[in-house]
Write a structure and sequence with these properties.
D-amino Acid Aminotransferase, Chain A, domain 1, binds adenosine-5'-triphosphate, PreATP-grasp_dom_sf, binds magnesium ion, ATP-grasp_carboxylate-amine, 355 residues, 9-stranded antiparallel β-sheet, Rossmann fold, Dna Ligase, domain 1, PurK_C, 16 strands, 4-stranded antiparallel β-sheet, alpha+beta, purine biosynthesis, nucleotide-binding
């Protein structure tokens, strides 16, 4: 049985482990805070479930292993400054932006980027944490401790948000899942649906963009590209060099999930175009106590992460990949009666995509 080490032991690492079993891959997620010594062998691959990590005994061990796949890509994409610079260098569309340096003031940002400017911490942000809006020209200011540590982006008046999850093998071959439509509220992903026929005309452009990035980075494995759709244009929001929340539906809706795809690429097993079964939906469970009754909803496929439940924290997700949109809507109605009232927004949104 070959072994693959994963830097990070959160839900993504656990789902990689789960996906490794049928492939006879022994996937070992490693807690970044661990003080253990791991028996890494020269022929074993190392991958990561996160783009950034602190220096700890565990991360030092894994990151110094010669077979750490994509090691040189992580620092580029983990820093929004180098990530956005790369997107510009490859002439791919993205929200206009600039670096916030020591003497950048809010007025200059408004002048260049417009009335609404979004500051984003260069590193460490996720689920919308690490963002600060400047919406009051003449009155607002860059927070003192954000200088040098942030970029500023123009607010994009997008029609909707979507993402594409792609995979690239060591031989350079790329495959992609169909575009996923995503609902983010206050920076956090609440739900996804894919594929949708009305988005098919954007697929080749999304593949060209992500393919160009993966080729340039000589990337191996699964990468996700989050986009804004503005009319028929796609603007890249951000990139994730790993399996991604917006690809969780592939566990139910494709013959090869994004987790299996990533492992195949890293383990140098054959990669093929995944086949997609039905329109799937995913509901993120955020800060909600587990309820076994969810399992009684026909078609519900629950992934519970086993983490302590805290407000705003992703603690699980539920996938559906049913034969018809009508069946999915009925299932979402049933699920709604078993979820807190704040889920009505995402469930309504999902149902409206299935009309
Ligand atoms: P993730 O959890 O996906 O890693 P994150 O914290 O890294 O999120 P972003 O993806 O950059 O942050 O932004 C989170 C959300 O904020 C986006 O999905 C979008 O809804 C909104 N957003 C980000 N950038 C812009 C922008 N330039 N204009 C308008 N809205 C934006
Ligand atoms: Mg992010
Ligand atoms: Mg994001």
């Amino acid at each position: 049985m070959s072994r693959i080490w994963v830097l990070g032991a959160g839900q993504l690492g656990q789902m990689l482990k789960h996906a490794g079993m049928p492939l006879n891959l022994d996937v070992q997620p490693v807690d970044i805070e661990s003080e253990d010594t791991f028996p890494l062998q020269a022929h074993e691959q190392v991958t990561a479930e996160r783009e950034q990590w602190p220096e700890t005994a565990a991360t030092r061990q894994l990151a110094s292993h010669p077979a750490f796949v994509n090691l040189q890509t992580f620092p580029i994409l983990a820093d929004r400054f180098t990530q956005k610079s790369l997107i510009d260098e490859l002439e791919l569309a993205t929200a206009p932006w600039q670096l916030v340096d020591n003497d950048t003031d809010a007025n200059a940002l408004h002048e260049k980027l417009g009335e609404r400017v979004l500051l984003k911490r260069r590193t460490g942000g996720y689920d919308g944490r690490g963002q600060h809006w400047l919406r009051e020209p003449g009155r607002d200011a860059v927070p003192a401790d954000w200088h040098e540590l942030a970029i500023a982006e123009q607010a994009i008046d997008f029609d909707e948000e979507m993402s594409v999850v792609g995979m690239r093998g060591a031989d350079g071959q790329c495959f992609f899942y169909p575009l996923t439509l995503n609902l983010h509220v206050n920076g956090i992903l609440l739900g996804s649906v894919a594929p949708l026929a009305r988005l098919a005309h954007l697929q080749s452009e999304a593949e060209r963009m992500l393919g160009k990035l993966m080729d340039h980075l000589d990337y191996v494995g699964v990468m996700a590209m989050e986009c804004f759709r503005v009319g028929d244009r796609l603007l890249i929001n951000e990139l994730a060099p790993r399996v991604h929340n917006s690809g969780h539906w592939t566990q139910a809706g494709a013959n090869i999930s994004q987790f299996e795809a990533h492992l195949r690429a890293v383990a140098k097993l054959p990669l093929v175009q995944p086949t997609v079964k039905n329109t799937s939906v995913m509901v993120n469970l955020v800060g909600t106590e587990r309820n076994d009754a969810w399992l009684s909803v026909p078609g519900a496929e629950l992934y519970w992460y086993g983490k302590e439940v805290r407000p705003g924290r992703k603690v699980g997700h539920i996938n559906f990949s049913l034969d018809s949109h009508a069946d999915t809507k009925v299932a979402l109605d049933q699920l709604q009666s078993l979820l807190p009232v704040n889920y009505v927004e995402v469930l309504n949104w999902l149902r409206s995509q299935l009309d």
